[in-house]
Design goal:
about 10% helix, mainly beta, single chain, OB fold (Dihydrolipoamide Acetyltransferase, E2P), about 160 residues, seven-stranded antiparallel sheet, 2 helices
Length: about 160
């Protein structure tokens, strides 16, 4: 299977790169984080200046130009779509439906104080019960759905103060 990667350069230019394209790249490692690359008859000197494996970000110098690169795969995109990105849980102020479904149970009410990972509600989708847990400690500001409601993907369910 030929995996695809989404690459964002300097927060603007977006590219899709496959494993086959990566494997076909004419690159030679010249030292610990330095590479010599030939592409389209042109020669490039590349050096990895900095990297953050958890965030999948890299700073790369190519022919003395510095680029900030973000790389993500299909799993990273799914995790982002579901709202479970690493480090984002502390910034979440609202819970939206990760998929269309039916609200089976709501375990909190407005004004309740919740802790991280406390169950907030149960959403039935595709004949499976999904427990939606609190991404952070907080106080429930509003609840936009009620037991028995059919909800759409990304519909607002709960807001935090």
């Amino acid at each position: 299977m030929n995996k695809q990667y989404q690459v964002k350069v300097n927060g603007a230019l977006e590219l899709s790169v496959s494993n086959d394209e990566i494997n076909a790249l004419d690159a030679i490692q010249t030292s610990n984080l330095k590479y010599h690359i030939l592409k389209g008859g042109n020669s490039y000197a590349a050096e990895i200046i900095d990297n953050n494996f958890n965030e999948k970000t890299y700073k790369v110098k190519i022919n003395n130009n510095l680029y900030k690169i973000n790389i993500s795969n299909d799993l990273d995109q799914l995790i982002k779509d579901l709202g479970f990105e690493i480090g984002n849980s502390k910034m979440v102020d609202k819970i939206t439906a990760p998929m269309p479904g039916l609200i089976l149970e709501i375990n909190v009410k407005i004004g309740d104080e919740v802790k991280e990972n406390d169950p907030l509600l149960i959403l039935e989708a595709m004949k499976m019960e999904n427990v939606i847990s609190s991404p952070r400690d907080g106080i429930i500001k509003s609840i936009s759905a009620k037991k028995g409601d059919a909800v759409d993907k990304n519909q607002l369910l709960i807001e935090f103060e």
